[in-house]
Specification:
The chain contains three helices and nine strands. It has one domain (about 1-134): 2,3-Dihydroxybiphenyl 1,2-Dioxygenase, domain 1. Helix content is about 20%, strand content about 40%. Strand 4 (about 40-45) and strand 5 (about 50-60) form a beta hairpin. It is of the alpha+beta class and about 130 residues long. Strands 1, 2, 3, 4, 5, 6, 7, 8 and 9 form a nine-stranded mixed beta sheet that branches.
């Protein structure tokens, strides 16, 4: 079921400052910031040879990232995203194994324009896991 690691997401208080740090300190290639109102975040992707880093900044007061940053004001790792070949089959398998799918359990369009779901961190060793249709 599990495919390759698509990205590691890091919540940050200022996505532009974080992108500049990745560019200047690490010489990384970064995307322009993209607001995703449906998800309550602004994203920047850092491109690596084997995966991506997703920098997330809260977009609005109801952003799930805002609550994360209240607990972790300097930011930190927010979630891991794995690719799957069939997101519905992956969801059904996870649920059959006792994992809770966040939200209404139906895929939403993610930052890459592909269907995504999130698995409750208490069911994945304390780590929020995103699954994305490959």
């Amino acid at each position: 079921m599990i495919g390759r690691l698509n990205h590691v997401a890091i919540a940050v208080p200022d996505v532009r400052a974080a992108a500049a740090l990745y560019q200047s300190r690490l010489g990384a290639t970064v995307s322009a910031p993209v607001p995703l109102p449906d998800h309550g975040v602004t994203t920047v992707f850092v491109t690596l040879d084997n995966t991506k880093i997703e920098l997330l900044e809260p977009l609005g007061d109801k952003s799930p990232i805002a609550a994360f940053l209240e607990r972790n004001p300097q930011g930190g790792m927010h979630h891991l995203c794995y690719e799957v070949g069939d997101i519905i089959a992956a969801r059904d398998h996870l649920k059959a194994e006792g994992a809770r799918i966040l939200g209404d359990g139906e895929p939403r369009t993610g930052a890459h324009g592909k269907p995504v779901l999130f698995v409750h961190p208490k069911d994945m060793l304390g780590t929020l896991v995103e699954i994305e249709q490959a």
